[in-house]
Amino acid sequence: MPDNNQFTRKITIVGAGNVGATFAYTLMLSGLCSEIILIDQNNMKAEGEAMDLNHAVPLAHPTCIHEGLCS
Question: How far is CA 8 from the centre of its chain?
Fold first, then answer.
């Protein structure tokens, strides 16, 4: 059986409001993925939530968290 650490799991969350941000936070704590992308109509909201979550990464599993662009 392959080691799960060798796979890259990326998850995109559409909507960076209360539910999306809380889901991203819980996902980061769980260690189920290596990258989380937040997308929201308000790009600044998604960017702000991603920056907030990145402050907690040293206390959780290594995860790359950033915002995506919504056209």
Answer: 13
CB-based burial of residue 48 (10 Å sphere; 0-12 exposed, 13-18 middle, 19+ buried)?
A: middle
Nearest in space to 49 (alpha carbons), one of 20, 11, 28: 20
Query: Cα 67 from chain centroid?
Result: 8
Closest CA to 33 of 51, 52, 57: 57
- Is the pTM here over 0.70, yes or no? yes
Query: Which percentage of the chain shows pLDDT scores above 90?
Result: 79
* Residue 17 token pair: 């409001």
User: Is-contact 38 49, C-beta < 8 A?
Assistant: yes
C-alpha 46/C-alpha 66 separation (Å) is: 8
